[in-house]
Amino acid sequence: MVPPRITPAELASGKRNILGSVLRSLREERGLTQSSVVGRLQRSGWDVSRHVYGYIEDGSRALTDLELFSVLAGLGASPKDLEISFRGFLKKRRSSD
Q1: Could you give phi then psi for residue 28, rounded to 5 degrees?
Q2: Radius of gyration of the chain (CA)
Q3: Contact, 84 vs 35, CB < 8 A?
Q4: Strand, helix or coil for residue 5
Q5: Separation between Cα atoms, residue 2 and residue 62, nearest integer Å
Q6: pLDDT tens for residues 22-77?
Q7: What b/e string do you get for 85-96 counting C-beta neighbours within 10 Å, with b at 16 or more?
Q8: pLDDT value at position 92?
Q9: Are 4 and 17 in contact (CB under 8 A)?
């Protein structure tokens, strides 16, 4: 897989992650709200608020690898699901260039 090309405009935009929109898509595909995902994350031991989770999805908060795997578990998704969605994200991104 070819890594995404990050443009100077994207760097200047303040985005801290590129997976947020992919995580949002996975959540929406499963018919989950941000609040329901946050509830699952909190029950698993991560004290995260809905606001912080929203910042992850909109890309304005960075995400550690441990947090990423926690979010995937909260979504009921696997790393393979993430890969498939990310490939779709890259395909859309390249077609809009």
Answers
A1: -65, -35
A2: 14
A3: no
A4: coil
A5: 21
A6: 999 999 999 999 999 999 999 999 999 999 999 999 999 999 999 999 999 999 99
A7: bbeebbeeeeee
A8: 83
A9: no
Instruction: Report the predicted TM-score, pTM, of the whole model to 2 decimal places.
Output: 0.85
Q: What is the DSSP letter of 30?
A: T
Per-residue confidence (pLDDT) for residue 27, from 0 to 100? 98
Structure tokens at 83: 């890969």
Q: How far is CA 62 from CA 15, 84, 93, 97, in A?
A: 8, 21, 20, 25
For the segment 81-95, what is each residue's pLDDT rounded down to a tens digit?
A: 999 999 988 888 778
Query: Alpha-carbon distance 97 to 95, whole Å?
Result: 6
Secondary structure in 3-state letters for 58-93: HCCCCCCHHHHHHHHHHHCCCHHHHHHHHHHHHHHH
